[in-house]
């Protein structure tokens, strides 16, 4: 009996101590606006200079594919800059980098299709000066002509979708697509089939023209005869 009483006394003391213990302050909310803004500003301060190398013009033939490539390099790595000299045909644009980098090439016409190559990820990492990232796309067009592609580049905050730096304005890539004889032949064949269908429809229409005209004339004569009979009845 005394042992049970002692256990109850100890449990009561522990419960009382838990109730009288001062409550700790709640942890700061992770979505606090001021904290979020300070976090973004601090992350933007950690970015460093980068250089985008690209081409603003490309060409291909219809139903063929062309490869479009861009390269983003963090400045400051002299050895790497020396290993990758700038080609005369390339153009450059300054861009802040540092962390997760993403690039997109978007067509403005449904006649153009853009697919990232299998070995090129949409997001890559540049951690320090001298690092470089490349993106490659396959570009095809179903019809000849001149088109535009929009190239965008984004530096993300850590592994989120929040942008710390965005290429503004986006780069316009001009695509020139030339025609080929196989495509011309296919287009002519398609046109001939279409015109053949029209010719068949017109032939069928003319074939039924005489019966239709006869039927319409008969109906008109019958209506006139019935009207004349009605007038005679009133007289």
- Structural class designation: alpha+beta
Mean pLDDT: 77
Which radius of gyration do the C-alpha atoms yield? 38 Å
What's the shape?
A: elongated
Give the uncertain stretches in residue-range form. 21-25
Largest sheet: 6 strands, mixed
Q: Spell out the helices and strands N to C.
A: HHEEEHEEEEEEEEHH
Please count the helical segments: 5
Helix content: 25-40%
Overview of the structural elements:
The chain has helices at residues 2-20, 33-45, 78-83, 181-207, 209-234; strands at residues 48-54, 57-61, 65-74, 91-97, 99-107, 112-116, 123-126, 132-141, 145-156, 163-166, 171-178. It is of the alpha+beta class. Strands 2, 5, 7, 9, 10 and 11 form a 6-stranded mixed beta sheet that branches. The protein starts with a helix and ends with a helix. The model is unreliable at 21-25 (pLDDT under 50).
Keywords:
alpha+beta; 235 residues; 11 strands; five-stranded antiparallel β-sheet; 34% strand
